[in-house]
Amino acid sequence: MKQQDTHIPLCFKCAFDTGSLFRFLTPEEIDKLNYEKDFRHYKRGDILYQEGNRISGFYCINEGIIKVFKTGFDGKEQIIRFAKPGDIIAYRSVLSNELACTSAKVIEDCQVCFIPSEILISFIKTNSSYALELLKLACHELGEANSFITDIAQKTVRERLAEILLLLVNDFGLDEENYLNISLTREELANIVGTATESVIRLLSEFKTDKLVELSGRKIKLLNKKALEKISNVYS
């Protein structure tokens, strides 16, 4: 259920705190963004939008974590990415004027700004620096998708799981005890790796036996990043 919050973050401060694309906007454009956006608060499990639906804008994450995924014919999710503070989602559907090609679900209570599609289009037309950075972002995400396709075809599930753990470290970091700063179910991990939940459970148990990780419910502590890098073949 969407809830409104009386404390609405200012886009200028938020953009520089999180490193979002909006830091490339002019002061006048920032003022327009602050006026036009719709600030929203979502709880874990809430759906922001669903694949196949028409959406009238895009989202910028202020707090929390959102999973972006596609659903297969069998109903199984394939997680495309996790969006964190500073990230924008659903912008490609806005740019292409197509139905949403993914769904978005909250996995950690979040605050987001919903921005009407015409605002994005107007900034692209009037601000070349912003347009270029948006193009770079789209190309970066396309590159990640290409890498994922290659991994699915050429790497074992063990290698992919090790790589995903390292990517989660890169995206969300570790706390003071070396636990990942993101809490995922075994099913969610399997849906990122692209395998069965049972396979992830078995491999995590093997990683634990090999003293690569330590498990505490959904929390995962990394004990040996060097060994995980070797298994993942990321740097080979």
What are its keywords?
alpha+beta, Jelly Rolls, Arc Repressor Mutant, subunit A, six-stranded antiparallel β-sheet, two-stranded antiparallel sheet, 45% helix
- What would CATH call the homologous superfamily of the largest domain? Jelly Rolls
List how many beta strands DSSP finds. Answer: 8
Mean pLDDT: 89
Structural class: alpha+beta
The count of domains is: 2
Give the H and E element order: HHEEEEEHEHHHHHEEH
Low-confidence spans: 1-5
According to CATH, the fold-level topology of the largest domain is: Jelly Rolls
Q: Describe it for me?
A:
There is one protein chain. The protein is an alpha+beta fold and 236 residues long. It has helices spanning 11-18, 27-36, 91-96, 117-126, 128-154, 157-172, 186-193, 197-209, 225-232, and strands spanning 38-42, 47-49, 57-71, 77-83, 88-89, 103-116, 213-216, 219-222. The protein has nine helices and eight strands. Strands 1, 2, 3, 4, 5 and 6 form a six-stranded antiparallel sheet that branches. Strands 7-8 form a two-stranded antiparallel ribbon. Helix 4 (117-126) packs across helix 5 (128-154). The radius of gyration is 19 Å and the shape is globular.
Would you summarize the structure shown here?
The chain is of the alpha+beta class and 236 residues long. The chain has nine helices and eight strands. Helix content is 45%, strand content 23%.
Give the SSE map.
Blueprint: H1 11-18, H2 27-36, E1 38-42, E2 47-49, E3 57-71, E4 77-83, E5 88-89, H3 91-96, E6 103-116, H4 117-126, H5 128-154, H6 157-172, H7 186-193, H8 197-209, E7 213-216, E8 219-222, H9 225-232
Antiparallel strand pairs: 1-6, 2-6, 3-4, 3-5, 3-6, 7-8
